[in-house]
Amino acid sequence: MTTDAATAGLQVYVVGGAVRDSLLGEVHGDRDWVVVGSTPEEMVRRGFTPVGGDFPVFLHPATREEYALARTERKSGRGYRGFTFYTGPDVTLEADLCRRDLTVNAIARAADGTLVDPTGGIRDLNDRVLRHVGPAFEEDPVRVLRLARFMARFVAFSVAPQTLDLCRRMVELGEVDALVPERVWQELSRGLMCAQPSRMLLVLAETGALARVMPELREDHQIREAVDTASRAALALPARYALLCMASPDRAGLARRLRAPTECADWARLLPRILESANQPASADQIMEFIEVADGVRKPARLLGLLATALVIMPVDVAAWRARIDVVLNVDAGEIALAIGDPKEIGRAVRAARVAALAQAAAGGTASRP
């Protein structure tokens, strides 16, 4: 067994998601470590690089994994930033674990494999229950969002009734009103990419948090079913977000509130128009208009992605639309520009050539009607 010189003599434990996922038999990502009984000065002396802001976190000199000093925390203001931390060498591992959100995330593993579980996390893993560690859960509103996201990921789990009650209380007290858009988007986007996003929406709705953090969102059974279907189809985040928003009248307002990426906001804006027109009987000129609505000449992959997203809601002949897009892209705009000469007429001439090519393809049977 190779000795790690950087951690030799330190009390170090793997904590959180890596332990949880390992016990569930799932592949885990990055490991998080807790160091007990040390100081920032000693960590730096051992070659660790400090990267923490509010509390000491260090990068291992070789693995670059994160090592945090064991800490306790105390509420000192509203929202998820209103905390003061204590990281003295007298903080125990159990005290550090007991400040965490859920019991299943409050399990540590020592170097010899011994598990430290002061809050009953192993029991709750076996019972498939997400349960808050203690009353301090309500001091951090991000935990409501994280709980909802975990429900989307761990589809066999339920939420302990007391934990749901605590989340409702947090909403009623206005704690979630202090959440900044970046944190809401972070948890929402990660939840949308989980196995069953509808479960996240249900938890947020049941606790009252959905109406507080996303008041523009209109969701129902069809929306929840759509995002779950998108998950099963392994659609990308912009597609899932567009389906989430498709019944919301103020999609632009929702995107601004969440500070959603431009790509996601664009898909949400375009999907309703795709749903409205993709299956309508169309002339060559109308087909060209449809492609132009989604900027399909410059971004054909996005248009095809939107059509694939529409498939979640209704039948769409994506192959036929792919053939039409190919017809349009095969028109040599450069050759037309050279032949026309007049810059003011080039755009009109290129479009006319594309419409003519679509009409010819339709007449020849190479692209069927939607």
Task: Tell me what you see in this structure.
The protein has 3 domains: 120 residues, Beta Polymerase, domain 2, CATH 3.30.460.10; 145 residues, cca-adding enzyme, domain 2; 93 residues, no CATH class. 50% of the residues lie in helices and 9% in strands. It contains 18 helices and 11 strands. The strands form 3 sheets. Strands 3-4-5-2-1-8-9 form a 7-stranded mixed β-sheet. Strands 6-7 form a two-stranded antiparallel sheet. A two-stranded parallel sheet has the order 10-11. A hairpin with a 5-residue loop joins strand 8 and strand 9. The longest helix has 22 residues. The termini are far apart. The C terminus is likely disordered.
Q: Quote the average pLDDT.
A: 92
Pick out the low-confidence regions. 366-370
Listing every helix as H and every strand as E from the N terminus to the C terminus, the arrangement reads EHEHEEEEEHEEHEHEHHHHHHHHHHHHH
By DSSP (H or I, 4+ residues per run), the number of helices equals 18
CATH classification, class level of the largest domain: Mainly Alpha
CATH architecture of the largest domain: Orthogonal Bundle
Count of individual domains: 3
Span between termini: 65 Å
Q: What name is given to the CATH topology of the largest domain? A: cca-adding enzyme, domain 2
The CATH superfamily of the largest domain turns out to be: cca-adding enzyme, domain 2
Strand order of the largest sheet: 3-4-5-2-1-8-9
Count of extended strands: 11
Main sheet makeup: 7 strands, mixed
